[in-house]
Amino acid sequence: MLLHSEDKTEREKVYRKILEAYQGNILCLNKQGHIEFVNRQGAATVGRTIEKVVEENLTIDEIEAKNILINSAAGRALRTGEKTMAYITGSIRENVTSFGVPVFNDNGEMEYAVSYSLEEGFFKEMAMILQKSIEEKYHAEQLVSHFSNQAKENQVVAESARIKEILEMFRNISSFKSTVLLLGESGVGKEVYARYIFDYSQINKSTYLTVNCAAIPENLVESELFGYEGGAFTGAKKQGHMGLFEMADKGTLFLDEIGDMPLQIQSKLLRVLETGEVTRISGRTPKKVDVRIITATNKDLEQMVREKKFREDLYYRINVFNVRIPPIRERTEDIRPLIHFFLDRYNKKYGLHRFFSECTMELFEAYDWPGNVREIRNIVERSVISSRGNKMTLDDLDFKKTLNGKNEDHSPVTPNKSDNIVTRAFNAPLKEAMKDFEKQYIERVYRDCGLNVTLTAQKLGVHKTGLYKKLKEYELV
């Protein structure tokens, strides 16, 4: 089934039909760079027929020299022996994105290089289909994120016993459609845990949508969640608008920051949860929806209920399973794994090989991380980008200023210019010499630990309270 020969068997005819049915361009080169096969669409892309391609008998080098194809993926795969992806231009009717693959024989020798290409129009058409199906770019991004491979991005890093217990609980409840309320400080990663529940559920091949109730303007929350009929209000689309509940039908809807949902919307949300029906703004006919709800907040909903800022009936409806995600300061075992996780992510993203010194890692472990996982992620990314070398130390970072600002209430120690610990003259009494040595030794370790009392106490093997007394005694705080 070569370019220059007729198909001799029925099997060859079938194979050619299959290749010609591909909605894109196929190009196969032999190891000398000559075209072994091209489908008719591929030939048409460069303004030729199959017969014309056979007549010209050009190599890929000649094709590129004539600017017929520029940046051929098949040519690159042939030269490098590796899979490749290329954006191809040249004397073609439309630019294409191409994937080149080398083909080896049983002896490991390259025999062919094949490329599969799709024209820009294909991607534009797909984008239009997505845009049309959900009507707005916001919803398109939601669906695209659902079909994207987010496993690595949403991975839960768990070394602490508490987080492992939480994950086991999530796996146990994931198959049930009961509502789940995730509580925790800002930055603990509540959205990641919501996605974890979905990924383990029986509906993990359906739609997963996220809405931040605090990020949507109050006058748009209702239309975003429940949709509206055409002409419902000034500026409304004539064809109406599908809300997130309808779009998440048979799937999962994650309502983040639900504590910021306006009171007037809470009553309508409660009705949807109670009846399983959603009615668009200005609509008359309710529509049945089957949506699993996961909610999250960093606010005290019980206090808000007492203050009449959150509906009590809605609170009990979303509080079937109540899970508190502990902050980083309560699960210090996760600090080092999280740092390594984000280091790996940003090293790969930026093509670098950064790592933290052990002293810096110990300092990180002693820090309370008020911004939780979000703060760890930001510190790691900033460090990877701004560091002057692969080994990142405290001196390379502005984290030291952050640490000192959030540490115990004390003034900085005046640095000792000498790295050597110097005692009094040898004729000094032993008790005074030992006290002088203790002061200098504590000061040296205290400085090396970035003025962090907790880490200094760990280094010295003493209790933090006792160390703090010593620091006051030696006027180091």
What layout of secondary structure does this protein have?
Blueprint: H1 10-20, E1 25-30, E2 35-38, H2 40-45, H3 50-56, H4 60-65, H5 73-80, E3 84-88, E4 96-104, E5 110-119, H6 120-134, H7 137-147, H8 161-173, E6 180-183, H9 190-200, E7 208-212, H10 218-226, H11 244-247, E8 252-256, H12 263-275, E9 277-278, E10 287-288, E11 292-297, H13 301-306, H14 312-318, E12 321-324, H15 335-350, E13 355-356, H16 358-366, H17 372-386, E14 391-392, H18 399-406, H19 430-448, H20 453-460, H21 464-473
Parallel strand pairs: 6-11, 6-12, 7-8, 8-11, 13-14
Antiparallel strand pairs: 1-2, 1-5, 3-4, 4-5, 9-10
Helix pairs in contact: 6-7, 8-9, 15-17, 19-20
Outline of this structure?
This protein is of the alpha/beta class and 477 residues long. It is 44% helix and 14% strand. It has helices at residues 10-20, 40-45, 50-56, 60-65, 73-80, 120-134, 137-147, 161-173, 190-200, 218-226, 244-247, 263-275, 301-306, 312-318, 335-350, 358-366, 372-386, 399-406, 430-448, 453-460, 464-473, and strands at 25-30, 35-38, 84-88, 96-104, 110-119, 180-183, 208-212, 252-256, 277-278, 287-288, 292-297, 321-324, 355-356, 391-392.
Written account of the structure:
The protein is of the alpha/beta class and 477 residues long. The chain folds into three domains: 10-120, 2-Layer Sandwich (Beta-Lactamase), CATH 3.30.450.20; 135-324, P-loop containing nucleotide triphosphate hydrolases (Rossmann fold); 330-406, Helicase, Ruva Protein, domain 3 (Orthogonal Bundle), CATH 1.10.8.60. It is 44% helix and 14% strand. The chain has helices spanning 10-20, 40-45, 50-56, 60-65, 73-80, 120-134, 137-147, 161-173, 190-200, 218-226, 244-247, 263-275, 301-306, 312-318, 335-350, 358-366, 372-386, 399-406, 430-448, 453-460, 464-473, and strands at residues 25-30, 35-38, 84-88, 96-104, 110-119, 180-183, 208-212, 252-256, 277-278, 287-288, 292-297, 321-324, 355-356, 391-392. The strands form four sheets. A five-stranded antiparallel β-sheet has the order 2-1-5-4-3. The chain has a five-stranded parallel β-sheet with strand order 7-8-11-6-12. Helix 6 (120-134) crosses helix 7, helix 8 packs across helix 9 and helix 15 packs across helix 17. The N and C termini lie far apart (84 Å). Residues 134-153 and 404-425 have low confidence and may be disordered.
